[in-house]
Specification:
The complex is a heterodimer.
Chain A: H1 8-18, E1 25-26, H2 31-60, H3 65-72, H4 76-84, H5 92-102, H6 106-112, E2 117-118, H7 122-133, H8 142-157, E3 162-163
Antiparallel strand pairs in A: 2-3
Chain B: E1 4-11, E2 17-23, H1 28-51, H2 64-67, E3 76-83, E4 86-99, E5 109-118, E6 132-133, H3 135-149, E7 156-160, H4 165-171, E8 173-177, E9 186-190, H5 192-200
Parallel strand pairs in B: 5-7
Antiparallel strand pairs in B: 1-2, 1-6, 2-3, 3-4, 4-5, 7-9, 8-9
The chains are: A mainly alpha, B alpha+beta.
Chain lengths: ~160, ~200
C-alpha cells in the first residue's frame, strides 16, 4: 500500500491553514531513559526482591532453571542473570514471559524488574520486607514459603496503575 | 546513505511553492547541525519575547542534539526537511507500533511521533514573517507515508504541546489528556478517513 501524496494546490491550502503555527509534539520518554528511570526508582532492595521472587517462585513450582527457560522461551543465561544479578534489568518481553509461566501479575513484575514506575509505595514496601526475609538456601523452608506466599498475595491483590516503557 | 526525496514548502511571503528535500534518515551529525542553526535564531526570538513580556513557546528549551542518542536505538527514525541549505523541520518517530485508541481502528498499529518541530524562523510566534509555511503539513505527510510503508496503514498518533493543539485538532482526533504521559499532554490520532481528508481534501 502506498500513501497518496497531496497535490500542490491542496498543499498550498494546508500550508496556509498551518500559517506558521506551533507544531511541536513530544512523546513519551525515550525507551532507554524510561527504563533507567524505572530501574533507578525500583532501587536495590526492590530489584533484589524481584530476583529472589523469580528464583523462589520457580523452586516453589518445582521447576529447574532449564525447565523455566524452556517453557518461558527465555535464554538460560538471561534467567541466570535475573536470579543471580539484582542489578540486571531484563527486557519487558522476558518479564512478560516469566510472569505468564510463574503465574504472577505482569504490571507488578514490570515495576519490580525496573521496567515501569508506580506511584504506589505499598508494593515497594512489601518488596523490601520480602527481600529482608529471604535468604539464599537450597530448599525453601517454611518461613521462606510464608514470605513468598505473602508477597505473591500482595502482588496479586494490588490494584495499581503503572507507566510501562 | 539516507534517501532524499523531493517535497515542497510554501514561501512565507508569497503564494509560491518552493522545492525542498525530505531526508528520510537523519544522522546524529544532522541533528547537531540543525541545533546549531536553530539555536541562535531561537535565543534572539526569546530575547525579544522576554522584552515584550510575551509568553515563550513551550518547546523553547528543546535541543535536538540531545535527542540524537535515541538514534542509537533501532526503534527510532528521524526525518527532516531541507530547503535553501538549512533544516526547516524535524520529525522523530518510533518504529515500534503503538496501538490505536480510536474506536473505529482500536488496537490497530499506529506510527507514534516522538518529536516534531519546525525551525524557529518558520514560526509566527517567534518571527514576524515566517520564512516557509507548511513544514508541519509536509512532516505529517512524511509520517503518514512512512506509516504506510511500515504496514501501519497510514495511522499516526502523537502527544501535542498545548500551543500546537489547534494545528493537530484540525486534522486528527483529540482523545484528551493522557494520564500515561509524563506531562499529561493530550493525545491525538489520525484515522484512515482523516488521512484521506488530510491528503485528498475530501471527506
Amino acid at each position: 500500500m502506498k500513501a497518496v501524496r497531496m497535490n500542490d494546490e491542496l498543499f498550498r491550502k494546508r500550508a496556509a491553514e498551518e500559517n506558521g503555527s506551533m507544531i511541536s509534539a513530544i512523546g513519551l520518554k525515550p525507551l532507554h531513559s524510561k527504563r533507567a528511570e524505572a530501574s533507578h526508582q525500583a532501587g536495590e532492595p526492590v530489584r533484589f526482591a524481584f530476583s529472589t521472587l523469580i528464583c523462589h517462585r520457580r523452586r516453589a513450582l518445582r521447576l529447574t532453571m532449564e525447565d523455566l527457560a524452556q517453557k518461558a522461551k527465555v535464554e538460560l543465561d538471561e534467567l541466570l542473570r535475573i536470579e543471580e544479578d539484582s542489578a540486571y534489568v531484563p527486557e519487558p518481553r522476558t518479564v512478560h514471559q516469566l510472569a505468564s509461566h510463574l503465574k504472577l501479575p505482569i504490571p507488578q513484575l514490570l515495576v519490580l524488574s525496573g521496567n515501569a514506575t508506580s506511584a504506589s509505595t505499598e508494593l515497594t514496601e512489601a518488596a523490601v520486607r520480602f527481600a529482608a526475609r529471604s535468604r539464599a538456601v537450597e530448599k525453601l523452608n517454611r518461613e521462606e514459603n510464608e514470605a513468598l506466599n505473602e508477597f505473591v498475595k500482595v502482588l496479586v491483590e494490588q490494584k495499581m496503575t503503572t507507566k510501562k516503557k | 546513505m539516507s534517501e532524499r526525496r523531493r517535497c515542497r514548502l510554501k514561501a512565507g511571503t508569497s503564494d509560491d511553492l518552493v522545492d525542498a528535500v525530505l531526508v528520510e534518515e537523519l544522522t546524529k551529525d544532522d541533528l547537531l547541525k540543525a541545533h546549531l542553526d536553530w539555536a541562535p535564531v531561537r535565543i534572539e526570538a526569546l530575547r525579544r519575547l522576554y522584552d515584550a513580556k510575551v509568553r515563550w513557546p513551550e518547546h523553547w528549551h528543546w535541543d535536538w542534539s540531545k535527542k540524537a542518542d535515541m538514534l542509537d536505538l533501532l526503534a527510532y527514525r528521524c526525518m527532516g526537511i531541507e530547503c535553501e541549505g538549512q533544516t526547516q523541520g524535524l520529525l522523530m518517530v518510533s518504529t515500534i507500533a503503538g496501538k490505536s485508541r480510536l474506536v473505529e481502528q482500536l488496537g490497530k498499529a499506529v506510527l507514534y511521533i516522538e518529536f516534531v518541530e519546525s525551525a524557529p524562523w518558520n514560526l509566527r510566534d517567534l518571527v514576524e514573517r515566517p520564512k516557509f509555511l507548511g513544514v508541519g503539513v509536509a512532516l505529517l505527510e512524511a509520517a503518514i507515508e512512512f506509516s504506510t510503508t511500515e504496514g501501519f496503514g497510514g495511522r499516526i498518533g502523537l502527544h501535542s504541546l498545548p500551543q500546537s493543539e489547534p494545528f493537530y485538532r484540525r486534522y486528527m482526533t483529540d482523545l484528551g489528556p493522557d494520564a500515561g504521559h509524563s506531562e499529561g499532554l493530550r493525545y491525538f490520532e489520525m484515522s484512515a478517513d482523516q488521512m484521506r481528508y488530510f491528503l485528498e481534501g475530501r471527506k
